[in-house]
Amino acid sequence: MAAPDAIFVSGIEFEASHGFTAYERRNTRRFRCAVELTHDLNASAASDKLQDTIDYRRVCAVVLEIGTKRTFKLIEALAGAIIDAIQELHPDTGVTITLEKLHPPCPGAPAASGVRLTRAPRT
To answer: What is the pLDDT of residues 37-53, one digit of tens each?
Structure first.
């Protein structure tokens, strides 16, 4: 069986005030997001028309809107809100989000910490 068709966008970056501690929420930190959308791309492959596919520019705009206009204590909640917003626009699409907090305030000075959430299509 062939792997499902997918559209992906990686390296979406933004500054935001997400974090468990009040200190993290008072200051901004850099985040990086990758989104993979499983969706049948046969129509757009044949038509070469944007209306037959998912516009990844809109996906990027959703990530930035949720990521910069709202505040979350957990990046799991932020990633879940992004998936919910994308699936509101495209309920027949599976979504995987990889969300990284760059240089989190942790012992050992890690380069990033993060989560990966995957949701099946809603329909």
So the answer is: 999 999 999 999 999 99
Tens digit of each residue's pLDDT (9 = 90 or more) over 63-109: 999 999 999 999 999 999 999 999 999 999 999 999 999 998 889 99
**Secondary element (H or E) of residue 66:** helix 56-69
Q: What is the DSSP string of 79-99?
A: HHHHHHHHHHH-TT-EEEEEE
SS3 content of the chain, % helix, strand, coil (to 5): 35, 30, 35
- State how far the Cα of 46 lies from the Cα of 118, in Å rounded to an integer: 28
pLDDT at 24: 83
Which residue(s) pair with 118 in the sheet?
96
Identify the structural domains of the chain with CATH numbers, from first to last: 6-119 (3.30.1130.10)
Rounded-to-integer distance, Cα 72 and Cα 95, Å? 20
Tell me how far CA of residue 110 lies from CA of 11, 30, 61, 83, 104, in angstroms.
18, 13, 28, 26, 7
